[in-house]
């Protein structure tokens, strides 16, 4: 089957996910939650990114597919555990795994996903090493990228949780947090794909930086869409405001209202001291963010990081995979929900 567009790459990933998980049946107490989780769907951005970066660097998606599945399983591992920590009831329009099966089953399901992921990474390294005779495959580099991504996403989640009890979070700290929690998994995906192709250091760096900057732009865009986007899967607009999330928007609002003795300053102070606001205040917060120019500045931030990301992508030789990477990045930045 020849993949010619992003949809077909997503379909290939879905098929591979189904085939891999079909081998894990018993005990059902463990694997039913795993299948429930993966049947919930998702954009599959990270595995598609892994495949395309491998192809853009001269590798094959056949050798890379097990690693791409591993990347998606790692991503879902983080979602299961994040939902438990956040006490989230819904994910992708239906009950979260811990709500459906209980916390113990959800924790163990997340853990086993990590074991399956490592097994799949090993398979990709072996396949790529066997089929790519003319280039050296750095298997340890693949494992290192995966383990670094795992550690950093845990660091990022820890920072995010710690921020909820702090009123002095800085904008620099916010960028450190989103770099680790969001951007690092995209960076990991790109690096693994490039390494499985036996890419040179320059190619790896361009693909890594493309994905990292795209990840930062993605998270700022996500924060922005919480205010101005279209509600989906039961997630109401302004949810971050109600939950007290320390996003760039509210950190910038605190900077711009400090020592102003205005109603906006009181609104921002209430947000930080009360760890969120009632939903009835969301229109006031939205108006404030527009009037302070924060919405426009957030859009500019997204544009700046996206511009740098695409500059790194365009430094690579033109290829169908590079075109699809650009299409993937453009699609992420043009979301409305």
Helix and strand content put the structural class at: mainly alpha
DSSP strand content: under 5%
Rough outline = globular
CATH class equals: Mainly Alpha
User: What is the CA-CA span between the terminal residues?
Assistant: 31 Å
What letter string, H or E per element, gives the SSE order?
A: HHHHEEHHHHHHHHHHH
Q: Would you mind describing this structure in some detail?
A:
The chain is an all-alpha fold and about 325 residues long. It has a single domain, classed as Farnesyl Diphosphate Synthase (Orthogonal Bundle). Helix content is about 75%, strand content about 0%. The chain has 15 helices and 2 strands. The chain has a two-stranded antiparallel sheet. Helix 7 (about 140-165) runs antiparallel to helix 8 (about 170-195) and helix 8 crosses helix 9 (about 200-230). The longest helix is centred in the middle third of the chain and has 29 residues, at about 105-130. The mean pLDDT is about 95.
Could you write a compact summary of the structure shown?
The protein has a two-stranded antiparallel sheet. By secondary structure, the protein is mainly alpha-helical.
């Amino acid at each position: 089957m020849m993949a010619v567009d992003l949809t077909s790459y997503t379909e290939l990933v879905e098929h591979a996910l189904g085939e891999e998980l079909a081998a894990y049946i018993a005990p059902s107490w463990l694997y039913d939650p795993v299948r429930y989780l993966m049947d919930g769907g998702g954009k599959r951005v990270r595995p598609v990114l892994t495949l395309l970066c491998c192809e853009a660097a001269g590798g094959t998606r056949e050798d890379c597919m097990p690693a791409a599945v591993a990347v998606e399983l790692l991503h879902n591992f983080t979602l299961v555990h994040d939902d438990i920590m956040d006490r989230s009831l819904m994910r992708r329009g239906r009950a979260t795994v811990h709500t459906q099966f209980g916390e113990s089953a959800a924790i163990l399901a997340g853990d086993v996903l990590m074991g399956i992921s490592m097994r799949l990474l090993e398979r990709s390294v072996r396949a790529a090493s066997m089929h790519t005779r003319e280039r050296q495959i750095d298997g340890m580099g693949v494992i290192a990228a995966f383990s670094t991504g795992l550690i950093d996403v845990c660091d990022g989640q820890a920072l995010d949780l710690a921020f909820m009890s702090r009123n002095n979070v800085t904008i620099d700290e916010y960028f450190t947090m989103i770099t680790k929690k969001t951007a690092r998994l995209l960076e990991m995906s790109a690096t693994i794909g490039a390494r499985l192709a036996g890419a040179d250091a320059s190619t790896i760096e361009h693909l890594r930086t493309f994905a990292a900057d795209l990840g930062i732009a993605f998270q700022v865009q996500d924060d922005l869409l919480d205010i101005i986007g279209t509600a989906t899967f039961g997630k109401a607009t302004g949810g971050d405001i109600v939950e007290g999330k320390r996003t760039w928007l509210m950190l910038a609002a605190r900077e711009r209202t400090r020592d102003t003795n205005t109603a906006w300053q009181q609104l921002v102070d209430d947000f930080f001291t009360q760890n969120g606001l009632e939903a009835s205040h969301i229109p006031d917060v939205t108006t404030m963010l527009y009037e302070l120019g924060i919405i426009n500045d957030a859009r500019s931030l997204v544009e700046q990081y996206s511009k740098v990301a695409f500059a790194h992508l365009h430094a690579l030789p033109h290829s169908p995979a590079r075109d699809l990477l650009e299409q993937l990045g453009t699609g992420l930045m043009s979301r409305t929900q």
